[in-house]
Design brief:
This protein is an alpha/beta fold. It is built from 17 helices and 5 strands. It has a 5-stranded mixed sheet with strand order 3-2-1-4-5, with helices on both faces. A hairpin with a 5-residue loop joins strand 1 and strand 2. Helix 3 packs across helix 4. The protein is globular.
C-alpha cells in the first residue's frame, strides 16, 4: 500500500502543470531530523481563487491547490530558493503573487527572485504576521511570562486530582503565539464559571470545601484580571483580521473593512497595538492592483504539512523520505481514473529510482547496517 501511494504521489508531482500567467505561489519549508529540508510550492490560479473560493466565502481547501514543486534541499540559502523559483517559472509561468512567512531564507530567496520579476507581489502571510505582533508584545512582558509559568505550575499541580479537567491547556513552545487565545479563553471562562456548575461536575463535594480548593488552585488568577482583559482584546483584533482576510482575501478595501469593527481602545497600549495591525493591512493591501483580490494566507500549506507529519509520525525515524510524496496526495481528488492513470504511468522501479536519486540511503537503512551485524562466532540460544 505504501508503495502504491508513493507511485500515485510521484505521478502527481511529475505531472505537467498548466502554463499560466495568473499563478499564485504558496511557499514554505518543512524539516525532520537530519540536515535536509523540503521546499514545497503550491499553486492556485488567481481566476479560480476569485471565482470559486472567495465567491463561496471560504478559505482554500487542499484540493483547491496544485503541487507545483517539491524539492529536498541540503541547504536553503536564499540564492538556492531563488534558483528553484526561476526553474519553476520556466515550467509553469511567472506568478502574479507569492505568499509566505518571513523566514530568513525564504524571504531572501523571494526578494532575489522579485528583483528579476518585479511584477510579482510578495505578500506576508496574515497568520504569521499577527502571531509576530502578539509575540512582540507578550514575549517581552514580564506579566505575561509569569502568567505562562503559573499556568504550567497549575497544570502539574492538578494532575491526578478531581479538578484535573480544569487544567490550563498545554502550549507547544514552537507555536505558542499562534494559540495565545487558548490560554486567555481558558482563564476568562474559568473566572466566569458559576460555582454551581462546578459542583455538578465534582461529585460528593460540599460547596465550601470546593470553593476553598478553587481558591487554593486558581486564586493566583486574580492578580491577572486586568491584563487578561487587555490580552483578550489584542487576540480578538488579530483573529478578526485573520478571519476577514482568509474569507474575503486582501484588496485595497481591506483596511476600510477592518476599521468598520468597533474595537475598544480605552488604553494607549491597545490603541498602539491596533495601529500596528492597521500598518500591516496598509502595507500589504497597497501592493494589490485596483479591482483585484489576492490571497492573504498560507494556511493551506501549513495544514498540508500537518497532515504529512501525521503520516510521517508512524515512521521509526524522523527523516524526510519517500513518505513526503503524501503531500502530493493531499492536493488530489483521488478518483478511480486518476489512480488508474497514475499506476499505469509510474512503476515501482520509477519510485525506487526517484527515492534513491533524491534521498540516497535512508537513515533507517544505515542503522540496520550498523546494528544488525553479528559475529559468526555468536552462539544462538
Amino acid at each position: 500500500m505504501r508503495n502504491w501511494l508513493g507511485r500515485i504521489g510521484l505521478y502527481e508531482l511529475q505531472r505537467v502543470k498548466q502554463y499560466r500567467t495568473d499563478w499564485i505561489f504558496i511557499i514554505d519549508l518543512t524539516v525532520e531530523l537530519g540536515k535536509q529540508k523540503c521546499l514545497v510550492i503550491l499553486g492556485v490560479a488567481q481566476e479560480y481563487l476569485e471565482s470559486v473560493v472567495l465567491s463561496s466565502k471560504r478559505g482554500l481547501k487542499h484540493h483547491d491547490v496544485q503541487l507545483l514543486a517539491l524539492e529536498i534541499m541540503d541547504s536553503t540559502r536564499g540564492e538556492l530558493i531563488e534558483q528553484k523559483l526561476c526553474e519553476l517559472t520556466e515550467l509553469v509561468g511567472c506568478p502574479i503573487q507569492i505568499i509566505a512567512d518571513h523566514g530568513s531564507d525564504l524571504e531572501k530567496g523571494i526578494k532575489l527572485y522579485s528583483s528579476k520579476y518585479p511584477s510579482v507581489i510578495y505578500t506576508y502571510d496574515v497568520t504569521h504576521a499577527m502571531a509576530l505582533l502578539l509575540k512582540h508584545e507578550l514575549a517581552t512582558s514580564e506579566k505575561y511570562q509569569s502568567f505562562i509559568q503559573k499556568c504550567n505550575q497549575c497544570r502539574h499541580q492538578l494532575q491526578q486530582t478531581e479538578l484535573s479537567f480544569l487544567s490550563p491547556p498545554s502550549q507547544r513552545s514552537g507555536c505558542r503565539y499562534f494559540n495565545v487565545e487558548k490560554l486567555i479563553d481558558w482563564a476568562q471562562k474559568l473566572l466566569n464559571c458559576p460555582i454551581d456548575t462546578l459542583l455538578k461536575l465534582v461529585p460528593n463535594s460540599e460547596r465550601e470545601i470546593l470553593n476553598q480548593k478553587l481558591i487554593m488552585k486558581f486564586g493566583w488568577l486574580r492578580d491577572y484580571l486586568e491584563v487578561i482583559c487587555l490580552w483578550g482584546q489584542m487576540v480578538m483584533m488579530t483573529r478578526t483580521l485573520e478571519k476577514q482576510l482568509k474569507i474575503n482575501g486582501i484588496n485595497q478595501q481591506s483596511r476600510i473593512e477592518f476599521e468598520k469593527n468597533q474595537f475598544s481602545t480605552s488604553t494607549n497600549f491597545i490603541s498602539v497595538f491596533q495601529d500596528n495591525i492597521l500598518e500591516y493591512i496598509t502595507t500589504e493591501s497597497s501592493l494589490i492592483p485596483t479591482g483585484k483580490t489576492f490571497l492573504a494566507t498560507s494556511d493551506v500549506i501549513e495544514s498540508i504539512f500537518g497532515k504529512y507529519k501525521h503520516f510521517s509520525s508512524r515512521c521509526p525515524l524522523k527523516q524526510i523520505g519517500q513518505m513526503v510524496l503524501n503531500i502530493s496526495l493531499c492536493t488530489m481528488n483521488l478518483a478511480a481514473f486518476q489512480v488508474l492513470e497514475a499506476l499505469e504511468n509510474v512503476r515501482y522501479l520509477d519510485l525506487q529510482s526517484w527515492s534513491s536519486q533524491v534521498f540516497g540511503q535512508s537513515m533507517l537503512s544505515k542503522r540496520k547496517t550498523v546494528f544488525s551485524t553479528f559475529s559468526e562466532d555468536t552462539d544462538i540460544v
